[in-house]
Amino acid sequence: MGWLRVFALVRRFYFNYNYVDSNLPYIHSLFFRRVQFSIRLVIAFLVSGFLAYGTPLKNQVSQLVFLIPLASVLVIQDTVGLTVAAAFQMLTTLVPVSIFLFIVQKIGLGYHDYVAAEIILLIVSFFIGFVGSQAQSRKIPLVMCAVFFATIVNQPIIPSTLIFQIFEVFAIGICVSVLITLIIFPAFATMDIENRVNYILLNLGEMHRLIVQSFLHQDQIDAQVLLTQVSTIEQMVFEAMSSLQTKLVFARFEPSRLLQRIFNLKRKNIIDLTLSEQENLVTSLFLHVRSMQSMVKQCHFNEYHTDLTRDIRESLLNLCSCQSIIINNITKHTLITKGEFMHYVSDLYQAHQKLSKTYRDTGFHRLEYAVISGTTIKSEDYLGHSFFLFQIHTIAKLLISVTATDKKKVVEKKRKTSLKERLIPKWSRILVALKTTIIMGVGSIFVMVPSLVTTFENGQWIFIALCMTQGDTVGGAFTTMRMRLFGTLLGAMWSYITYLAVGDQIYPTFGMLVPWILFFGYIRSLPNWTYTALVAIFTPILINLGRIAGPIPVPEGDFILLRIEENVIGIGLAIVLTLIIFPIFALDLLKENIQNTLEAFRDSVNSIRSIYNKLILDKNPTGIYFDIEKNKEVESFFAAQRNNFYQFITTQRTGIQHIAVEPTFLWINNFSSNHYTTLIEQELDICQILHTIDAALMNINEFLFIDEDEIHLVGKEFFHRFWKELSTLSSQLNGRFDMWSSYFKLSQTRYHRLFNDGIFYNKELFEIELLKQDSYLAELRQTVHRLENEHQDGVDQLLKRFIDLLIQGGTPSNFFPYKKNDQNDLIIIAISTMCFSTIKLVKSAIDLGTTIHNIFELETTHRYIPY
Description:
Layout: H1 2-14, H2 30-53, H3 57-60, H4 67-75, H5 80-106, H6 114-131, H7 135-154, H8 162-183, H9 189-216, H10 220-241, H11 244-251, H12 256-263, H13 275-298, H14 303-331, H15 338-373, H16 379-402, H17 419-423, H18 427-448, H19 450-455, H20 460-468, H21 474-502, H22 506-523, H23 530-549, H24 556-580, H25 586-615, H26 628-659, H27 673-703, H28 716-746, H29 750-756, H30 763-807, H31 812-815, H32 822-860
Transmembrane segments: 37-54, 60-76, 83-103, 115-133, 140-158, 164-189, 430-453, 459-478, 485-501, 507-523, 530-549, 569-590
Keywords: Cell membrane, Membrane, Transmembrane, Transmembrane helix
Subcellular location: Cell membrane
């Protein structure tokens, strides 16, 4: 048994799987994962180096042989899926480019002819810029073109298959990187998602436990201490979730379901979710747990709260205990049979039913006490606690539903792109392609114009620097340039040390480069050092191995200084070209993303109203109905909306980092990253409120029956009244979201406004827009007061009706039909949740509007002048 455990531990460590299920957490740590990546990088370098210098390839492509280890370290990535995706994108671009350039060389175009070569280079650059959707996928093909054209213009004799030789060395390096990624510590994106989901589930379970404990506290200060711990865990969970959607994209390049079946064989009878289903599960749970947290933060620890928590404490803690057992069994590879696990699921279901009954009885007794004592139940207390219990019920329901192993999988229908959509010109891609073409054209003069070639010693490093410092935005490009310059200096220093130690000897040079690659391979996994470490790795490979590969080795000191000098010139040119040629500022993309988020909020509010009408109200008759077939379709629609919200918010967090290096002072008066960070948090608040309304709507629809006797407590008129409330609220919020979206459109950079709108906006328009905001926010505050008063009137009418019934000699059972029907009880809680959520939605919209107003005022007026 001991050997089996050791083997299982080694297997999990080697395949980077199931870190949370380990008795040795220091082995399954972030440190060791980074060490694994650096070892993988070193082995790829050594294997490709052996192929380059220990096989006949050295004689076939003597001057290009150093590109094999260079390509291998450039392509290898953190996960198998990411490495395969990078290799696939590069090869799909390199293959047609290589064929085209071979034909060009065969017919003699561009050979020692500057004009012809320049035209062909521009055509190829446009193709690469258009095909490469991201800057990273464009760099290697552009470098290959740079090497090819620099050679055919300047070299007196070149082989007829030069382009295929260049393609061959790149392809060998790419294949080596893919094979090493598959063999040495294979980190599959599929397994990384599984690990992250397990980590997130465990931490969400801990957040849930702490929030429940804070909710059950009698003192608000003690509750806030626990909520501080919750906030810390929330940040860790959010960081783990931030890359889930990106990793899902790269997991498509892996046999995900096969890997899940192999590694999750013991859990297949317990839980068997696809990667997208797992991502939907943890995202939904995160929003519900965060909603619990927000309610406890606003909770009034008064007599109502004290009496309620005293009555439901035992059943609530029992449910939390059962839920923790389920999460532990889902996330850890414990030896448990399906029967034992289903017994735990049954315990959770019974605990859920017991909590519902306890809360129902507690509410009834509280209503009796209010009648007898003559006190008033505040709607805020009643609705807020119903909101909290709804989150508890929904979380338990989610866990029970995903563990049902006999359920039928719903196959998601992917939307097919029509021929018309394929033929529509993608103007953003065309602009990127034109920008790439111009930059390559400027860089090519340093390798094609004879006078400049002589002045700058062939000028190839300038050309390559322009190829490698391109970015998707100005901020991204500037960040890349800064990292490249620093990485070049670090790599050049180690290159000189290597030369002084071993000279021009190949294998001792490899020995000197191995510890350097091992160290910076570890550094490369750090978020803010990725590209700096990559440049520091390949710079000594280029200098030491590339210098030796030449027909006459250049002195080491001259070669290093030449590379640094030309890199500085290339980066300087890149800065100017990035700013003046179709600049795409991260600030503009951030504002566009926020506009899209606000429009998505508007569409979500409208869809809630529309779906509420479709699922619950029938406009032709006046009755109430539900359609189980529509449920699945609507749930998929809500899940897609939620994923869009989360993707927008994640992109905005990244955009703020790139804006910090952009010259924002040229376009706006003040840029405050703190305000934008606050804005993102408020967007997340609105997202979780909309998600709660969606869940409440589906809950009502699931348990709503046509029998009028079953729903007469709520009254048919409630659903129609709530429909009017939703209609009024959606109309009001639509106008506010549109107005706030226009703020970000008005405050974009002058270039973006001129290019997209064809006009400039004057300061008078800014002042007019700012004046509108005060009146609109006042209207929203009045809406909050109106909703609070309406809900309070509803609770007061409920008490009055109860008193009238008792006076007439009735019994409480006639008034509370839901005491005999658990489903009606869930409807009441869901309805209360929707009422509470509408108020929270308006309040969050007010906070969001205030922050947007402050941002707009900071950026467009001189009211706030920094010191």
